[in-house]
Amino acid sequence: MNKVYMETYGCQMNVYDSEIVKRILTDHRFELAEKPEEASIIFLNTCSVRENAQQKVFQRLHVLKKLKSNNKELIIGVLGCMAQSMRQELLNGKAGVDIIAGPDSYKRLPDLIENFRLNGEKEFELTLSEYETYSDIFPEPDDDVNAWIAVMRGCNNFCTFCIVPYTRGRERSRDPYNILQETQKLAEQGIKQVTLLGQNVNSYRYNQYDFADLMKIISEVDDIKRIRFTSPHHKDFPLKLLKVMAENPKICKHIHLPLQAGNTRILDLMNRTYSKEEFLDLVSLIRQMMPDITLTTDIIVGFPTETENDFLDTLDVITKVEFDAAFMFKYSERKHTIASRKYPDDVPEEEKSSRLIELVNLQKRIALKKNRQHIGHIFEVLVEGKGKKPAQLLGRNDGNKIVVFPGNGASNGDMVSVKIEEATANTLIGSAV
Ligand code: 5AD
Ligand code: SF4
User: Fold this and answer.
1) pLDDT of residue 93
2) Per CATH, the architecture of 129-251 is what?
3) Are 108 and 132 in contact (CB under 8 A)?
4) What is the pLDDT of residues 172-212, one digit of tens each?
5) How far is 39 from 16, CA to CA, in rounded Å?
6) Do 129-251 and 253-373 fold alike per CATH?
7) In the chain, where are the structural domains located?
8) Range 113-131 average pLDDT
9) Residue 327 CA: which ligand is closest?
10) Can you tell me the distance from the alpha carbon of 48 to that of 12, in angstroms, rounded to the nearest whole number?
């Protein structure tokens, strides 16, 4: 009667939020189901960032709805960003959804379930909070080596293409000592690597503590060997943060620094608050202070009014910076956003596709070149699991690159020195030394 099955779509924040939801429900005597068929309640934790993320959820709901014919009591719920942005579409009868709850409403889930069972009427809770950080809930990590920790939630940047400020509300940060407690608890459970999460993680601020202070505090937990963070914004990289990163060996030398576009006019229309040159300047400063830094990025092609010439600026920045990896997307117009109100989605689909292909091909060549430069180097690899091949182990180096090597008796959570012998665009292959 009280078995819950959860499925997660979208970003790492959603992965963490699903862990929060599981903790809230198990604290209220719900149990977790391994498969949807065994569940009396199915929750999809969803993403709205692009149209195809939403399509996936609607398709999944269509399949799950069929389970209701064998199990009349089955409750289907949609959580997260789509609950917030697609309320009408989800609550109409066709979707087969009984409960929807936005990212700040998870503590209400036990009540929503009870009310639905009592009244049989669709339940929703979509209030966005200025305060909710779930800081009183320490979720159970899904992994034995890595854990996520949300340190701030929401976003105030209002990049014009992005729906997140509307689905997740305003920025709010957690007390650093509460985050420290969560980190200590994770360390006691054997976690070796934490990734600090926020929609705009380096704008973290709690009283006098900024993001650099927070990272220093967390790095004092002995058994945590590596600290990562994602996703930062260009505007919040004071020298102080770069110094703390450079000086603290536990803070991984990897920055995921979203570029979004290389052309200053487009960046301006996106409200990114930096020009092409300012982005390149920050990259130079970062490399000056941390020569071995791994840099990765996010890029959108085909933002409204982007011409072929504008796009060349994106290729130019990619060529100059030589990111180690990139997530690349076609612009997808989102409801509510400033871009959807001000700028018609006027770049033809074929143009978007051809730009994306060109960009992906260029980035692949760069990633391969950069990975090949690692051949002969020895990296400390934190073992996270098994590779695809028999007896192969898989882990990541400090720069967040996947490294595979023949098993040498090491277990998950061990640090192993691995000499790189081969490289693909996505993986370094080596042997323990
Ligand atoms: N269309 C395409 N990509 C988007 N992103 C955010 N909003 C959109 C959109 N409307 C991308 C950005 C962001 C990443 C998480 O998703 O690159 O950094
Ligand atoms: Fe969206 Fe921009 Fe906020 Fe990132 S910083 S969540 S892209 S609005």
Assistant:
1) 74
2) 2-Layer Sandwich (3.30)
3) no
4) 999 999 999 999 999 999 999 999 999 999 999 999 999 99
5) 21
6) yes
7) 3-125, 129-251, 253-373, 378-432
8) 95
9) 1
10) 14
